[in-house]
């Protein structure tokens, strides 16, 4: 396939996505997913055209990588449309195949030196592309992978200090090691490496701010009793979440056992009730060939909402004021719940 044929193919790909998006149901959820989907689909062709006009090898590679990223995002939104039954599976099958073929052609074009690829061999012969995506961690990622162990070591030392010299000071040192130190590191990390909403990939050479943020919070996921103690004190847990950057209202009733994966990516209104063993997950990770796709979006819970026990809330879930979520409910990414739902 030559350049002109592939350019026309990416244009038709975008037009087909626009046509199907017009047939989506008229509601806020479908409109949001449709908007994201069309943005990605139209970006595929736009990045290819930009790649053809690029002025350097580095610039061409950048645009092709953007093209592949947008095509991967298209697959994600198509999967959401299928699994949420917003569009019939039969309508999406051809577009799914076309998306995968565009990804395959783009991936194959990078390492090969064939005249049938998207660019002439004289261009590709000057490049040295790895056949596989690098999976090594950055030095900062490696450091934060050991952060939970560091916290446990400091806490153990503080505990031994408390045993050797009992007193208020040694008790405060222990509490700081368990609660103050991780929070302080998180706030510094968030200042220099803020976690951004949207799609990113974890097996890239760039440092992932989410990875560091998650490793800092991992101690409270591994040892949930640390936060369960705070929920026994009225108002203490809500204050704790606000210190992590969450937007938390007043008069919230927390059951002692729940799991929050991303403390800085939740918004909860006044007088909400969070049931037993509720899980609030503002991120998902999905394997994508040789990479891992990360999607992060804030979970929002309105005033006077009731979240039933053992429910799980995915990234981007929005629960309106006064809504009731039955027990063991699974709310998938970007789902919006109204009181009548």
Describe the protein.
A hairpin with a 2-residue loop joins strand 8 (about 285-290) and strand 9 (about 290-295). The strands form four sheets. The chain has a five-stranded parallel beta sheet with strand order 2-5-10-13-16, covered by helices on one side. A four-stranded parallel beta sheet has the order 3-6-11-14, with no helix packed on it. Strands 4-7-12-15 form a four-stranded parallel beta sheet, with no helix packed on it. About 50% of the residues lie in helices and about 15% in strands. It has two domains: about 5-125, 23S rRNA-intervening sequence (de novo design (two linked rop proteins)), CATH 1.20.1440; about 140-335, UDP N-Acetylglucosamine Acyltransferase, domain 1, CATH 2.160.10. The chain is α/β, with parallel strands linked by helices and about 350 residues long. The termini are far apart.
Brief summary:
Helices cover 51% and strands 13% of the residues.
